[in-house]
Amino acid sequence: MISSVSMPGLMRLVFFAALGLGIVAETVHVHAQDRAISLDTIQVSGEREQATAHETATGPVQGYVATRSASGSKTDTPLLETPQSISIVTRDEIETRAAQSVKDVINYTPGVNSSNELDSRYDDIRVRGFLAPKYLDGIRLPYGGGFIEPRIEPYGLERLEVLKGPASMLYGQTPPGGLVNMVSKAPPFTPFGELDLQTGSFNRLQGAFDFGGPLDPAKQFLFRITGLVRDSDSQTDFAKDRRAFIAPTLTWRPTGDTTLTVRGYYQKDNPGYVEQTLPAIGSLYVNPNGRIPVNRYLSEPTFDKFDKRQSSVGYTFDHRFNDVFSFRQDVRYTNVDVLHDALRGDLGWITPDLRTIGRFAYHIVEKGDALGIDNAVTATFATGPLRHKLLVGVDFSRNTSNFAFGFAPAPPIDAYDPIYGIPIPVPPVVSHTDQMQKQVGVYVQDQIKFGRWTLTLGGRYDQAETSTRDLFLNTTADTNDHAFTGRAGVCYLFDNGVAPYVSYSQSFEPTLGTDFFGKPFKPTRGEQYEAGIKYQPNGFKGLITVAAFDITQQNVLTTSGYGFFNVQSGEIRVRGVEFEAKVSPLPGLNVIAGFSYLDARYTQSNDANAGRAVTQVPSHRVSLWADYTFQSGPLAGFGLGGGVRYVGEHFGAYGIAGLPGNAIEIPSHTLLDAMLRYDLERLRPTLKGWTVAVNAVNLADTIYVSTCYAMEICYYGPRRTIIASLRYRWQPTP
Question: Which of 140-149, 320-329, 367-376 has the lowest mean pLDDT?
Fold first, then answer.
């Protein structure tokens, strides 16, 4: 068992095993050169380097295998030279799997999970056991409060990247598990167009478009506009899934050394209350009345409302002064407005027959915005045998949220024979807070190359301010934090594509609130040790990553044991291993494989949770996806694929009397996905550019509980969803 092996020892084993593997493979490679024509070997190695060189850190990728990223360094860096684990989901993979949300996009990413998969109001994603902040084009999205975190439409993304482990040295206040950075589609140099129509389960209707290209013969001005409209029901009665989205982008290239890209984004969501709050008895555990139907709606159709509008505008400015110095500035302003009314069954069963659920009504009005500015100068130079890529940056962020909450009792409902149409008045506002968070950070990073070695060193100093006003009590609480965080990593690149690495990184994140004496809480501090192997084959497109890591987070809030206040004596430790492979070994064949094991525990706590597993974190995740498109013969143009996802058991909540270990344990589940598609040009040449596809998620229609937060708060997972799509892509003839 992994838990019986010390993680430092395991990480050393991984690193030295990789080093030994690389040396052995390198020796075989050299001996093979002695017995074969050297030109062949040089050509194969060159193919890998050529593929990497033509790709950029934010641009399109042909297929599923990305080889470069900027999320882990804020520079365009090969993944083999980044001493930290990064998972990338490309545009092609998103389309093949027909991912409809960011949660869907990460379904096959190891070490990443979503606690409440069915919630259509926001994307809660955990990376290595910790809730992960979301970034769009390197700038953090609004956060805090209830539902102001934007839910980004995946149709507007070129790629999604998960940076695993602490990232405070580059991004400032973040948890130690990692972050999610989404990269928007950018204007292309070649004109193109796309129309996409979808229909499917739950009366789904969706239309999308994507156009772009140069606006002038010199290609100084490029544009792209992407949009989508959806009207659908959902697996929950009365709950809709509606969205309107548009994202215009304009690029100006006055010279070959200067680029300005301006991005706009607007999205309106009107989903219903899809995820219903259910008692554990009747969903997770047996109820004498039977299982509560998966489509059961426990709110009130005439009262339920969710209206979310999010908009943003920003730009990226790049300028290269000469062969040494370049400058980059990223700016984004995002605004979010939310109006949400619903009834929740958080009161659980209130009658002995276990049929009637107690409810309360809530009313939320929320407004938030975020401004992020990141300035960085990069210098590329050499000092003797050392080649440097030095990054010096200053960033600023401001995040505000205004949260008004109303609450009132509501009539109960029979979960097995519900009656709707009861008038529900809007509850009066009982809580109203206004919060502003500011951060200013200065960071320095040097990526140093010496032969086959790459050393990455970085440090950052942050000042963070938080001001929280209670508009009901007319009180204000201010917190001022500062922190230094660093990162160090080294990797060694063999000619055969094996790259072992080790790294150390730190994190910090402000903690809101005060202790019993009114003293503001200190920020949480985290650190990670990681060792791994990355392998990029010479003969075909592929990237394989194996990583072992040990994360510790300190200053975690825990109960005092002497009343209703908290102290910062808690500690969380996450140890684990991850395996990820994305390969295209044959023309038309793509394979994605992933495995993760997380041993996440409360190592220090003032309550009974000390030594227990962290809630909402599955211990195991295993996934496998493969798809193949026939290249010739009578089936040419026909593609098929399928996947399997296993999510291990986890604990939902503790302190539940009467259950084994006083804990709610969520069982494991296994889901099957499938895909069929056909290039209609193979049927008739006049249908060039037309493609038809059918995707199925949870093909076997497995009914399962995704998580529980208490005996009264459980959620079903998504049921089988089938989507048929018809897509037309074209490029004008030159």
Answer: 140-149
pLDDT in tens, 450-494: 999 999 999 999 999 999 999 988 888 888 999 999 999 999 999
Q: Are 629 and 590 in contact, with CB atoms under 8 Å apart?
A: no
Task: Sketch the domain layout of the chain as residue ranges.
Answer: 2-730
**Taking Cα atoms as reference points, which of 728, 732, 710 lies closest to residue 346?**
710
pTM: 0.92
Distance (Å, whole) CA 55 – CA 76:
10
Looking at 60-133, which runs of residues are DSSP E strands? 68-69, 77-78, 86-90, 112-113, 126-127, 130-131
**Spacing of C-alpha 23 from chain mean position:** 35
Q: Return the number of other C-beta atoms located less than 10 Å from residue 216's C-beta.
A: 8
2-730: which CATH topology?
A: Maltoporin; Chain A (2.40.170)
Among 44-48, 89-93, 285-289, 366-370, where is mean pLDDT lowest?
A: 44-48
Confidence of residue 53 (pLDDT cuts 50, 70, 90): low
Q: Residue 679 — φ and ψ, nearest 5°?
A: -85, 110
Separation of alpha carbons 513 and 478, rounded Å? 9
Which tokens in the block code for residue 110?
């190891």
Reported as a single tens digit per residue, the pLDDT across 625-649 is 999 999 999 999 999 999 999 999 9
Confidence of residue 40 (pLDDT cuts 50, 70, 90): very low
List own/partner pairs for 74-79 with CB under 8 A and 24 or more apart.
74/138, 74/170, 74/374, 74/376, 74/391, 74/393, 74/445, 75/378, 75/389, 75/391, 75/445, 75/447, 77/389, 77/447, 78/52, 79/534, 79/536, 79/543
**Angle formed by the axes of helices 7-35 and 38-54, nearest 10°:** 130
Instruction: Check whether 86 has a pLDDT greater than 50.
Output: yes
Q: Give DSSP secondary structure letters for 327-375.
A: EEEEEEEEEEEEEEEEEE-TT-B-STTS-EEEEEEEEEEEEEEEEEEEE
SS3 at position 513? coil
Q: What 3-state class would DSSP assign to 70? A: coil
Beta-strand pair 620-629/541-559 = unpaired
CA angle 435, 437, 439 (to 5 degrees): 175
Residue 580, token pair as written in the block: 């990820």
Q: Are 421 and 105 in contact (CB under 8 A)?
A: no
Helix (H) / strand (E) containing 14: helix 7-35
What is the Cα–Cα distance from 324 to 454, expressed in whole angstroms?
19
Q: Phi, psi (5° rounding) for residue 646?
A: -115, 130
Report angle CA 215, 689, 53 to the nearest 5 degrees. Answer: 60
* Rg of the chain taking only CA atoms, in angstroms: 26
What is the predicted pLDDT for the residue at 284?
95
Mean pLDDT confidence for 684-702:
97
Q: Given a cut of 90, is residue 332 above it in pLDDT?
A: yes
Q: How many CB atoms lie within 10 A of CB 246?
A: 18
CB atoms within 10 A of CB 718: 22
